[in-house]
Structure prediction request, 873 residues.
Amino acid sequence: MEALRVEGLTKHFGGVSAVNNVSFSIEVGERLAIIGPNGAGKTTLFNLINGQVSATSGRIFFLGQDVTDLPTHLRAHLGQARAFQIISLLQRLSVLDNTLLTLHGTKPSRFKMFQPVRQFTEVYDQAVETLKSLDLWEKMDEPIKNLAYGEQRRLEIGLGLAIDPKLLLLDEPSAGLTKEESADIINIIKKLGQEITVLVVDHDMGMVFELAERIIVLHYGQIIADGTPEEIQADQRVREIYMGIEECIDHAGVS
Amino acid sequence: MDWFITNMLNGLSYGMVLFLIASGMSIVLGAMGVANLAHGALYMVGAYIGWTVVVKWKVNFALGLLAGALGGGLVGLGIERGLLRHLYKQLNEQVLLTFGFVYILSNLCLWIWGGMPRMPFTAKVFMGPIELFGIVYPKPRLAVILIGLILAVGLWYLQDRTRIGAVVRAGMDDKDTTMALGINLERAFAFIFFTCAFIAGAAGVVGAQLLGVHTELGLDVLLLALIVVIVGGVGSIQGALLGGILIGVIDSFGKAVFPQLAMFTMYLTMIVILIVRPTGLLGRKI
Amino acid sequence: MGISRREIGRSRAVRVVLFVIVGVILLINPFFLSGYGQGVMTRFLCFALFAMSYNIVFGYTGLLSLGHAAFFGAGGYVVGVLKLRYDITLFWIGFPLGLLMSTITAALFGIIALRATGIYFLLVTFALGQMLYSLAWNVKWLCSPGMNGITAIPLPDLGIPGVTLNSTSFYYIVLGFFLISALLLHRLVRSPYGLALVGIREDESRMKAIGYNTWFYKWMVFLITGFFAGIAGILFTYYNFFISPKHLGISTSFLPMVMSIIGGLGTFLGPVIGAAIYILVETLAGTALPERWPLILGGLFIVTIMFARKGIWEYLLRLWAETSFRDGSTKS
Prediction:
């Protein structure tokens, strides 16, 4: 079963094509990484899949359904969860408020107007559980901006997972994190089950090669390689474009 | 045919006034991201000063125009340098602050000039009618069209052909890079604001030929400016010109055919544009 | 956070005491005031309700709408027209119809205005409000003979034989509506919907990504605030004896904004405090310097922005924050 399929996806911004005739598909449970130099179109691709940006042409299928014209919030209901390149948590609100908001987002109770939020005990309990498992329960009343960057990232991804998504979109999860914090995130993702499909964009080759079963390389908005980590490593074009990849691979100790 | 020409000229002259009113507001909004709700009040100040110079002191119209423009410009500059520049990027606060000046300036004008509305006035040279295209048409209205066109060309030149225009457009597109290039954005902004306030004051004197002068102008003119900006789009002279003329013409013909509709045709146009093209006909994305 | 139990207990006590004092004042003041004074208190409550409702769309949701007086005045105009054209003064007809009109107007405004974003949204709401103003000014059917606006609107008839309202009894009716509305709005603000509004203000893009149909939330906010602004406007019209196009236009739209900012934007009771301050200044200026009132009002705007941007409530807010620490409310 395909979790995601993208056909002939193209996005023009004025005269520039950020994404140019991109086609690929991901099976349920797959761990796919998308890499490429800066400006290759990776974030635009995510924005297309998640709905922040509408395609110039092409189609996007999520779990078999054509979502090309579907607004973002409905894609969340279908099962997409996303962590953004710049942490998107609401900085001035508390950890608990952010958690409650995220959990309610896909539940019908989000429209309730006359009962206090805390009275929705099922959701509240889930929030408590989630925060405890992320080791952030003590900080529940802290505004997000007071948390360390690594904690914020952990929370953002943790919240994304708390709503039982089918597709997890991670946009540069390791950006701004220390080695330990990155390892932390890698562990969280490794523990995920086969019902969740993971799509990662990152520059940290260590993380990419540890997590990904398959890698797509994007360059100037086009796919130039698609294969297993070994195949990508060996691909001559990729090596040329991505100078220094050998160094990164050696450092990460991947064979 | 006469009916058509008369109303067309009415529409064009009114449209020119609208353009002059709206252009300053649109540029400040587009270039600096500042919503200056006192723009109509600056028009009013210019109109009152112009009246004093031309009608009360019986000095010539050109000087009255200059005086009104300077008056508007200086008051505007005062507001910007004194208070507004602390509020960049804070839309809510700007709106409240500038609207406060509508009240203050309106009441001050009331205090100084009294509550009697002033009749439209014009230069001696423009008084009376002229024969044109087979109809008899008042010269002041033609003067408005002429002056409006001259100013439009001048402003377009300023916007598209001069260095300051380029700075403004760069600042509109990317403030940080512009500043990183060593351009003194603060001074540029003060200059832009002054210029737009200057235009507002000038518009007050030019428009006085059609609209007269009274203390409600601050609000009335603001509303007109906003409608033109919504229709024409923010940030360009061309947008203000197109919006102004379009609305002026629609309003004139609307009033000629359905006199009881008053300002309704304007509002209708605005709503249609909002539905069809929310950023205005020639608007830049802000 | 290092707040001792005693501090919480003490802050809570202070909160309760404050509430009681204000409550008592609100309840017994008519007995100490002349008809004029009672009128001022009634006016205060109407504006306080208007400001509280506006604060939901402006402070909590972050939408700078400049057309809200349209909802305030629309209800009032229905009441006026019912009296002027149909000689109906029954509360049970005027109030519901007026409220319906306010809410429908808000719904329509919302659909149009929400097509615009950022600065355009502001411009559009402004123009829509002025459109209604212009309508009320020009349409003869909406005017008492010889003037702009409708006059001679009496206090409502409750349809109960032998009962006629006077300024004191009407004050208590207004107080009742104010308290019930305040309670409902308070619940709204603490509900999941209310929390979502704050989320939309902080980062609408994220809210969409986690499943919220933000357009719908914003449109509903128009309806809700239009509804409560309508209540305020209808009660105001009865008190004021007179409704004018000005009550639909920008000059009235700005008032709840000023009040909200003075009192403390995005706090629940900030607008009420702001309304109290405004009414105070207005009453004082009215007796001392009536001709310069617009000047003073403009000055009030300027002073508020340059010096009191966080609002007077900011100081009291700390007390609230500390007492809200663990009693089940959300802090935003």
User: Anything to note?
Assistant: The beta strands of chain B are 129-132, 135-138. The mean pLDDT of chain B is 84.
